[in-house]
Amino acid sequence: MERSAEPIAGVPARWWHRLDDGRIQCDLCPRNCRVHEGQRAACFVRAMQDGEMLLTTYGRSSGFCIDPIEKKPLNNFYPGSSVLSFGTAGCNLACKFCQNWDISKSRGMDRLMDDATPQAIARAAQTHGAKSVAFTYNDPVIFAEYAMDTADACHALGVKTVAVTAGYMHLAPAREFYSKMDAANVDLKAFTDDFYVNLCGGHLQPVLDILAMIHHETECWLEITTLLIPGKNDADEELKALSAWVAKELGPDVPLHFSAFHPDWKLDTIPATPLATLTRARRIALEAGLHYVYTGNVHDKAGDATYCPGCGKPVIERDWYRILGYALDAQGHCQHCGTAIAGRFGVFGKPFGPQRIPIRLHA
């Protein structure tokens, strides 16, 4: 735990309790950080000041962009729509392969350049025509209070909300958090506890518990992403076990994305994931009975497409984040055979496209 030399500023945090030895314990995630006065938790953004726990990044962002929803990645949630994306700083895991390490591993607030209230974020999304707001770049678990207040402000204006997260959270706060999310993409980083312990500083089971809770206890639309790292989590046996668990515990309609790793952070000597690995993983998941399996971070039209589980025809054809063909009605039924496609859909207009548009906004 880190101790600050200066007084810590922030807003009152939730989900903590006092200990008999004068410390306080954070009850937000399975790390259960116990901190003394002036110390920060492992995530860096939750800290003890004057005997209370504070969230130090409320209202402060590392930047705002308008993105395609497929970038989150969410392929079965209002395809072709745009999403206002933002994050803060810090993370409650310590993934050695983090692809946003400059934000998530930040130990300073210098990257938090944009100040914005929940209401300002909701208005910006509405002004820019974004269907939803995504809490992303770093994990929204650690700024849950800010994300939840922003979700309330968004819903008041008819804007949807999306969490892009590793899902490392205790069940009690998670039930509150995901009740305010319209969709989530959860990183299932691997299917062995050894991987989580040695490469992420966490454990597998809490993530599996969160996935089951989201799917079975909330209305939040769920998609899953696994970043395949050569030699670390891409063996057939592990991919079969992961796919079988999703099919059995969540069902065949939860989309699963296999994404390509590129060398970064502390795993910069491992080569990028070959396309063949992604297509092999996709084949294994399809053979396990999953209906919607995608490949990501590569150009792969077959792996980008959404196929009807009824007739087998493509109903959404994509190239990267660009939609090339769309054959669903407004209710999400296949126009070829009438089968309902799992997800959230509406009237399909002109797709947003692959562009990424940085924006600035102020409280």
Largest sheet: 9 strands, mixed
Helix and strand composition category? alpha/beta
Quickly count the helices.
9
Hey, roughly how much beta strand do the residues contain?
15-25%
Question: What is the name of the CATH topology of the largest domain?
Answer: TIM Barrel
- Determine the fraction of residues in helical runs and give it as a percent range: 10-25%
List unreliable stretches of 5+ residues. none
Explained architecture:
With 363 residues, the chain is of the alpha/beta class. It folds into two domains: 2-55, no CATH class; 60-359, Aldolase class I (TIM Barrel), CATH 3.20.20. It has helices spanning 101-104, 118-127, 144-156, 171-178, 193-200, 205-217, 236-250, 275-287, 301-304, and strands at 2-3, 11-12, 16-18, 24-26, 34-35, 39-40, 46-49, 52-55, 60-61, 64-68, 82-86, 114-115, 132-135, 160-165, 183-187, 221-228, 256-260, 293-296, 306-307, 314-319, 322-326, 357-359. The strands form six sheets. Strands 18-17-16-15-14-13-11-10-22 form a nine-stranded mixed sheet. The protein has a three-stranded antiparallel sheet with strand order 2-8-7, with no helix packed on it. The chain has a three-stranded antiparallel sheet with strand order 3-4-5, with no helix packed on it. Helix 2 packs across helix 3.
